[in-house]
User: Which sequence fits this backbone?
């Protein structure tokens, strides 16, 4: 395929290729989560369950469970219903807005339901360094918080450049998931699981 003047312009200033799987500016690491935005978490969980994903741990992300909630760099009072299921080494997530302005609400209003973001482990960089790497590349934080006093998460304004939102989160080694509000379709058997 021959380079056109337009493609040469897009490629100007891009990083060097180090190998078949790495660029000179790589830092994202592994994909650890895929998130779906929905108007109806129950309906979406039911569909995913029919496809063999689950069981789902359902939480409410609000002022009682998430500290330091921000939107666009400012304190914000958003609430989300959030469900998690593990599929292999990847977490599947479903988010439904409950109240207030959030990037999930904005996405649903602009695009309708669908995949909203993917999360990366950022090669386990320190939390501040992860945020700085995104910002230095021109991608400011669009929404963030800290769930259960330990799981820090941040979304970045990458949609215009990549067609989707990127996220990273960090759970300390001693982080313990709180019991979910509910399990869907039902709580699994086993005493080692949160109730």
Assistant:
């Amino acid at each position: 395929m021959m380079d056109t003047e337009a493609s040469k312009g897009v490629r100007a200033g891009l990083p060097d290729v180090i190998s078949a799987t790495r660029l000179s500016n790589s830092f994202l690491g592994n994909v650890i989560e895929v998130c779906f935005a929905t108007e109806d978490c129950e309906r979406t969980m039911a569909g995913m369950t029919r496809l063999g994903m689950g069981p789902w741990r359902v939480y409410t992300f609000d002022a009682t469970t998430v500290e330091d909630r921000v939107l666009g760099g400012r304190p914000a009072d958003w609430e989300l219903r959030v469900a998690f299921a593990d599929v292999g080494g990847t977490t599947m997530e479903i988010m439904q807005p409950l109240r207030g302005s959030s990037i999930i609400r904005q996405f649903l209003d602009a695009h309708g339901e669908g995949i909203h973001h993917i999360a990366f482990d950022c090669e386990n960089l320190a939390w501040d360094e992860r945020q700085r790497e995104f910002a230095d590349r021109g991608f400011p934080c669009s929404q963030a918080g800290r769930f259960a006093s330990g799981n820090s998460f941040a979304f970045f304004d990458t949609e215009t450049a990549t067609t989707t939102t990127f996220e990273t989160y960090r759970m300390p080694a001693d982080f313990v998931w709180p019991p979910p509000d509910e399990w869907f379709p039902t709580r699994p058997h086993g005493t080692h699981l949160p109730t």
Remarks:
- The chain has a mean pLDDT of 93.
- Residues 25-175 form a domain with the 2,3-Dihydroxybiphenyl 1,2-Dioxygenase; domain 1 fold (CATH 3.10.180.10).
